[in-house]
Amino acid sequence: MEPFFLDLQPAIEKAVLHEMEKIRMEIGNEHIYSAALVTDSDCITLFLAVNTEEALARRDEADRTPERLAELRKYWSEELVRQVADGSFSLNRYIPDEWGYSDGTDSELNQISRQLYDLEASFSDTDDDAYDDVHEQFQEQFLETVTLVFEALRAEGVFDPETFCFIWMSDDDQTPDIENDSARRLNTPEQYEQFQTWTRLFNE
């Protein structure tokens, strides 16, 4: 798998660079505050999600209707719902599924997802006793590669220092650890602490 991932890193960097050029044209003068590379529990899909403060404000406004606040009370404390209602807390700030911008279905990242799927599918011939180890190695190499992509793109100025970057895995028990580890590694201590504060409130 090593040669595959050595080739994968520059391919993802190139794909993200192209998508960011398109997204910046789409958002105009809006202010980007966060970007995430999103995958699934098998690490066979990859897409870029980006959000702006303006898009976040539009999404948060939808959470402040009486009907939506009543629904939120089923899942969150009254204190947190009160903060959502008065605009002092956003449930959507670090949830890429709720963000305003991403690459399209015909993007280069979508093509990379197909390559990841094909590689993972090739493990089906692996002996049952060895499959878990092979798949775990695949996931570890993938996540490290995606993290290196973010580090390289930040160094190149594609993501400025104020943009909070992290990796997000949808619908998996590993998601908190992956979010946390990447957030700590890719951002300043101050940004990471802000993320941790939000996470604690979100999970109350």
Structure description:
The chain is of the alpha+beta class and 204 residues long. The protein contains eight helices and four strands, in the order αββαααβααβαα. The chain has a four-stranded mixed β-sheet with strand order 3-2-1-4. Helix 6 (128-155) runs parallel beside helix 7 (175-186).
Specify Rg, calculated over alpha carbons: 18 Å
For the sheet with most strands, the description reads: 4 strands, mixed
Which bin fits the share of residues in helices? 55-70%
What order do the helices and strands follow?
A: HEEHHHEHHEHH
* Percent strand: 5-15%
Please tally the helical runs, counting DSSP H or I stretches of 4 or more residues: 8
The separation of the N and C termini measures 40 Å
Uncertain runs: none
- Quick one: how many beta strands? 4
Q: Based on helices, strands and strand pairing, what is the structural class?
A: alpha+beta
Overall shape: globular
User: What is the typical, i.e. mean, pLDDT?
Assistant: 93
State the strand order across the main sheet: 3-2-1-4
Structural descriptors:
single chain; alpha+beta; four-stranded mixed β-sheet; 4 strands
Topology (SSEs and partners):
Elements: H1 2-27, E1 32-39, E2 47-52, H2 53-62, H3 66-72, H4 78-86, E3 101-102, H5 108-121, H6 128-155, E4 164-169, H7 175-186, H8 189-202
Parallel strand pairs: 1-4
Antiparallel strand pairs: 1-2, 2-3
Helix pairs in contact: 1-6, 6-7
Summarize the structure.
The protein has 204 residues and is α+β, with helices and mostly antiparallel strands. The chain has helices spanning 2-27, 53-62, 66-72, 78-86, 108-121, 128-155, 175-186, 189-202; strands at 32-39, 47-52, 101-102, 164-169.
